[in-house]
């Protein structure tokens, strides 16, 4: 099934010998297609690059260049895997009308959910350390790889626009839509933050499965998925951690009554993130990150619902109603976080 790919890869990259590559599906990303390559005991990760979502690969290359220069000067205690170059010296290989990228395989474990609170803290320390390290980078030199990626106000407006073009919605969808539209005050809060927070270089996709843990789960080996690395705010990166770590069930779960925020994990995340960032945070940023989880959960929910209404054109789904279900999952998690606002604020106040 992968014969043509095998031949083309050997032509494109110098790494391989002539023996057949073992090629198998890998990972749980929703955007790029990920494959594992194996040959004579060595492994690589091959990514089928999604050009519909990432329309400006040259901007990614530009940002990753800046990143790798910074990394040479200031090493990090974990890896940031960057694309290997082809024989032609490019980060992307063109094979049968598709674009591919090759990465060295990082030995370790990815989690969809943490198994112990200490892993929440370790994950947050790593992303916090990354944010402090990235704060020395000139944010103005970074290009937007997906324009307006985390603009909550625009995601909210887009959902309303899509709904306008649709006939009467079934009750389940209408109820969900109303739940989302009722989040306008959070959108207003978000807009106020934009006016006062410093723009920084952020990872912008800090879900738990974008970390590779050591097999013992005691340390982070690598931080992956660097395509959305660009200007952003601390509340984005801390927020996506809250969304994907401090939740009782993953974003694919459909057991609605079992979906809620786990406050103890939120607290571990906050402790770990602040430790990692080591004081490189303003008072306004500190206030804003407490709402990061809500903001990122709302963004993802709005995007899932919009994609469902548009016919699943963006996210990979494994069944037709999956985006609707993801949207319902995220609204449930969001409402649970909102019920814990006082607790989170009290916890932060006594730090
Ligand atoms: C996508 O690529 P992946 O699966 O790590 C998405 C994120 C969402 C996430 C939801 C470029 O991340 O924004 O948070 O799915 N990335 C893009 O699981 O849209
Ligand atoms: Mg990913």
SSE layout and pairing:
Layout: H1 3-12, E1 22-25, E2 33-39, E3 42-48, H2 57-73, E4 93-95, E5 98-104, H3 117-134, H4 152-164, H5 171-181, H6 184-196, E6 200-202, E7 211-213, E8 220-223, E9 230-232, H7 234-245, H8 263-277, H9 283-289, H10 292-310, H11 322-339, H12 341-349
Antiparallel strand pairs: 1-2, 2-3, 3-5, 4-5, 6-9, 7-8
Helix pairs in contact: 3-7, 3-8, 4-10, 5-11, 7-8, 7-10, 8-12, 10-11
Bound molecules: 2-acetamido-2-deoxy-1-O-phosphono-alpha-D-glucopyranose (GN1) and magnesium ion.
Magnesium ion is lined by residues 29, 209-210, 225.
Key structural traits:
single chain, 351 residues, Phosphorylase Kinase, domain 1, 2 domains, 5-stranded antiparallel sheet, two-stranded antiparallel sheet, binds 2-acetamido-2-deoxy-1-O-phosphono-alpha-D-glucopyranose
- Stretches with pLDDT under 50, minimum 5 residues: none
Order of helices and strands: HEEEHEEHHHHEEEEHHHHHH
Look at the structure and give the mean pLDDT.
97
CATH architecture of the largest domain, by name, is Alpha-Beta Complex
Oligomeric organization of the protein chains: single chain
Question: Helices and strands: which structural class?
Answer: alpha+beta
* DSSP strand content: 5-15%
Q: Find the CATH topology of the largest domain.
A: Aminoglycoside 3'-phosphotransferase, Chain: A, domain 2
Main β-sheet, in a few words?
5 strands, antiparallel
Kindly provide the radius of gyration, computed on alpha-carbon positions and rounded to a whole number of angstroms.
20 Å
- Overall geometry comes to globular
Question: Count of helical segments?
Answer: 12
Number of domains: 2
Bound molecules: 2-acetamido-2-deoxy-1-O-phosphono-alpha-D-glucopyranose, magnesium ion
User: N- to C-terminal separation?
Assistant: 56 Å
Q: Could you state the CATH homologous superfamily of the largest domain?
A: Aminoglycoside phosphotransferase (APH), C-terminal lobe
The portion of residues assigned to helices is 40-55%
Q: CATH class of the largest domain, please?
A: Alpha Beta
Instruction: Give the strand order of the largest sheet, numbering strands 1, 2, ... along the chain.
Output: 1-2-3-5-4
Number of strands: 9
């Amino acid at each position: 099934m992968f014969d043509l790919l095998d031949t083309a890869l050997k032509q494109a990259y110098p790494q391989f010998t002539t023996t057949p590559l073992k090629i198998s599906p890998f990972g749980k990303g929703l955007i790029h297609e990920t494959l594992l390559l194996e040959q004579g005991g060595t492994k690589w990760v091959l990514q089928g690059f999604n050009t519909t979502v990432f329309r400006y690969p040259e901007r990614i290359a530009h940002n990753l260049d800046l990143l790798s220069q910074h990394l040479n000067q200031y090493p990090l205690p974990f890896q940031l895997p960057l694309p290997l170059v082809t024989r032609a010296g490019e980060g992307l290989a063109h094979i049968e009308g598709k674009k591919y990228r090759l990465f060295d395989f990082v030995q370790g474990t990815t989690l969809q959910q943490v198994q112990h609170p200490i892993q929440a803290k370790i994950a947050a320390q790593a992303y916090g350390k990354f944010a402090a390290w990235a704060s020395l980078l000139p944010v103005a030199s970074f290009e937007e790889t997906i324009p307006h990626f985390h603009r909550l106000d625009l995601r909210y407006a887009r959902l309303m626009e899509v709904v306008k073009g649709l006939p009467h919605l079934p009750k389940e969808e209408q109820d969900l839509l109303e739940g989302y539209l009722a989040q306008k005050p959070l959108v207003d809060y978000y807009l106020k933050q934009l006016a006062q927070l410093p723009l920084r270089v952020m990872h912008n996709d800090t879900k738990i499965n974008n970390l590779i843990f050591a097999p013992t789960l005691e340390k982070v080996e690598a931080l992956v998925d660097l395509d959305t690395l660009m200007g952003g705010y601390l509340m984005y990166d801390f927020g996506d951690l809250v969304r994907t770590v401090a939740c009782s069930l993953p974003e694919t779960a459909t057991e609605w009554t079992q979906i809620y925020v786990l406050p103890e994990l939120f607290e571990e995340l906050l402790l770990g993130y602040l430790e990692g960032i080591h004081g490189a945070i303003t008072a306004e940023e500190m206030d804003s990150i407490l709402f990061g989880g809500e903001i990122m959960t709302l963004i993802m929910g709005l995007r899932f619902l919009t994609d469902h209404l548009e016919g699943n054109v963006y996210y990979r789904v494994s069944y037709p109603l999956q985006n609707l279900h993801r949207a319902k999952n995220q609204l449930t998690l969001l409402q649970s976080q909102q019920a814990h606002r006082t607790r989170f604020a009290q916890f932060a106040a006594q730090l």
